[in-house]
Amino acid sequence: MTGLDVAYVPTPKTIVRQMLLLARVRRGEILYDLGAGDGRILIEGARGFGAKCIGVELDHERVARIRERLAVTKVEAKIIEGNFMDVDLSDADVIAIYLSESVNARLAPKLSAELKTGARVVSLDYPLPDWRLEKKGEVTSAGLRRQIYLYRAQYDIKRPNPRGPD
Question: For residue 71, what are the contacts with CB-CB under 8 A and spacing of at least 6?
């Protein structure tokens, strides 16, 4: 499919697990995977961590592949076919992303505006500009050192909190 801002590169399963461990995903939390690819973060989030998973994927063929993988693995997750920039993320406890520097730059203000205080964002390889890093992890896969960045949404007194006072 043309017009996608991010090339599809599957995240190795060991890195998926490390991302979710760094984010400290807990049972019952709502985990969004933005650019869900083949659904591997959704499957690990639900199976390994007990999260309620929502994948957002623009590519119709990838959405079909995610649905197949969910059926085969008997994992329940919600799939939204569309652009994650158009999806309300305000109920997220954790956001998982493996996008690009330019897409993270466009996504960062949306996350700042929508995420509730304390929600975590875990990003593989690309930092979120203008967000304060909470923790950084490093993992080696196929001989390459990869960075995992963890951020936490903070209430900003310069903007109103859309969910009311904390």
Answer: none
